[in-house]
Specification:
The protein is mainly α. The protein has one domain: P-loop containing nucleotide triphosphate hydrolases (Rossmann fold, 3-Layer(aba) Sandwich), CATH 3.40.50.300. A 3-stranded parallel beta sheet has the order 1-2-3. Strand 2, helix 3 and strand 3 form a beta-alpha-beta unit. The longest helix is centred in the C-terminal third of the chain and has 19 residues. The chain is elongated.
């Protein structure tokens, strides 16, 4: 998630650098979504939806407006990442579900059998 503050244009301008950092250090198949946060403060927006959508489109990634304060569309952001991941795994022919982990059974049977004294 590349998240910027809609009420500060400097934050939006930094998305280009952050995108470069993700491309440089993350897995080449990393799922990316541009998030405009603080949608609850529309009256203080310094970045329009159109500007943000245009930037997201130039990166080839989805754009979502959210509010961490009131949880507006936060779930949608994670659902979008999940959908993109599923789409990517299908395109790569990778399984959607990995093998189940082996089951481990914890018992107390041998706990009393091994008793150590510090002085013996």
């Amino acid at each position: 998630m590349i998240v910027f503050d809609k009420t500060h244009c400097n934050s939006f301008e930094n998305t280009e650098m952050w995108m470069h950092e993700v491309d440089r250090y993350a897995n080449k198949n990393a799922i990316k979504v541009l998030i405009g946060n603080k949608s609850d403060m529309d009256n203080r927006d310094q970045v329009t939806r159109e500007e943000a959508e245009h930037k997201a489109k130039s990166y080839g990634i989805p754009y979502i407006e959210t509010s961490a304060k009131n949880a507006y569309q936060v779930d949608l952001a994670f659902e979008t990442i999940t959908r993109e991941l599923i789409k990517q795994r299908k395109a790569l022919g990778a399984p959607l579900v990995s093998k189940p982990a082996p089951k481990i059974s914890l018992t107390t049977e041998n706990i009393n059998a091994i008793s150590h004294n510090c002085c013996s």
